Amino acid sequence: MKAGRSILAAVVIYAAFVLAQDRNPSRQFQQAIDLMATRGDYAAAIRQFEQIAKGKDRSLAARSLLYIGLCYEKLGKEDARRIYQRLVREFPDQREALAEARARLSALAQPLIASSALLVRRIYEGNVDYQGGPSPDGRYLSCTDYEGSGNLALLDLATGAKRPLTQKKSWFESDDFAGSSTISADGRQIAYAWFNEKSGSYELRIQALENGNASVLYHHEETDYIRPAGWSADGKQILAALRGKDGTFRIVLVSVADGSLRFMKKLDQRSPKKMSLSPDGRYVAYDFPTKEDQAGHDIFLIATDGSGETALVEHPANDLSPVWTPNGKGVVFVSDRTGTYSLWVVPVGGGRAQGPPVLIKRDMGQIVPMGFTTRGSYYYGVVNAMNDVYIATLDPVTGKVKEQPKAANPRLVGASDYPDWSPDGKQLAYVTRLGSAGAGRNPLALTILSLETGEQRQLDPQLQFYVRLRWSPDGSSILTLGRDHANRGGLFQIDAQTGQVTTILYSPSSQGFPREADWSPDGKAIFYSHVSGPIMLRDFATGREREIHSGVIFALSRDGSLLAVHSEDRATKSSIVKVVLVAGGEARELLREPGPGAFTFAWAADGRSLLFTKSRELWRIPVQGADPQPMGLAMANLRAIRVHPDGRRIAFSAAGGNSEIWVMENMLPVLQALGMGSDTPRLQVRKGAPKRVIVR
Length: 696
Description:
The chain is mostly beta strands.
């Protein structure tokens, strides 16, 4: 009996052990995987994974949901997307499973995106800058109306009409103008930068849209530039980048109540191209260059309470212009990692990326993101500037253009600018725009065209941008003005063979970068000016300087004895060109035209006349006095005229193409498919207050 009882007890214990093994979640998980992978019984595997997902082990539960989704994919059922979204929603702490779920959602969403779920349309074409943003309801765009004397304006996107919000009368009144602007979340106010000519710096202002009242929110003598980037949802703070007199930028929040600052991040001379405040006000997304000597950016998140910072997007490509989705679950950004600029989104939670970036739309072109409306429509500008360098032949008798000008680079259309002839006239240098700046590559190249062979070679000067090329008298280098990759404006010398850059001088931060520069004929001195003038002569070897004349825009005669200088007479509201002796003496007025026209001019090779642009036309006026005569050439935005040493040819730039505003709609369903679309705010408009937008 005792032996029988012992055997029975052993059988019971063994049976309990086997049963316990069968009920062990880890063993059940392996059995479910076997059902799925080995036997192909997806329905049975789903039932077993569902039981495990109800357990207390969160790791196994998340992995079970992941496998349920994979089973549904094998069965060809839409339930897979629902399961992955559940995993994203309920298990944000399970990072590995979460990343896999997001990757599967991304793969499942691509057919949705490819099937034209996104509606992309152009809503405006015309003259508009990209420094503003859309109203919450998408009806208006804030902008600077440069044709309207630099006033802050609202662009009605339905009618194309611009309504000025500030009351400056003309450019002759002052050089004040509006800078970057952003509309509040309730649609009732605009925060904008305003350049104050008297102080030579920017201030942050707020303007009410209903009654037009404006006030200065922030101005400080140690701040020379400020750029507002967005409002908090409650309207109590404004995100901004400001630059101090020391030239360094800071990311700050400005209190709407009293203008006080909360400092979040000190940068260097470089500034983010775009910043965005999360809907809950807890984080700021911004882009920033990864290396001082390269053009590529990464994207970072910084907590507004100062608790920390993390890299959100790190990649060798150029990742730019982050914008939070309306529900704060993702950051949309631009990247050239596919070879062209495309739109991507990265899921975000708890101040960190919750998965890899997902491609939304390829081949967006040169876009400038502006932001979302409350309903989730994504607004952006498209840069369509078409700058080309042309060469025209002059009649030696009449001095007029003999035939239609020809493009210097007919193969590459719309991407060349700022020409200059070499001293021997055998080469033409100009700036070429290549496009994106991925993997540390510069978006610009210095192209040198041989007039004898037609060969074009490209140099890669390590500068952020450069304009107004001027060959040195000995032909060994090229003078240019622009900014380096540390965002320092200045004058630079580029070796014409190697492209190596030598810094001649850096500008004070308040002056930006020089506006005009040229060599003296002997190559021993440089003439230059800043935005506020005056024109200076700098000894190249010693760095000693002397003031030549007031003014900013100028042209030096070939023998170096005369300067043609542009100025404005505010009393008579006219633009003037004067001739000034470099050695000193009385300036002589050569030309006076009504209006604030910005002349482009160049000396003829013999120094007896001056070529200049008026509206779309090229004119010539004798220096010794006579009426100006048209030269038979008219093109849009004709500028940057350079006369060949033989006097029989000219090179110049002309530009075409309008600014465009586009909107991408139906993005919320795509974000929903990626597990980033819940908790989206609704838009309501109260009766009796059509301009007030309330987010709930």
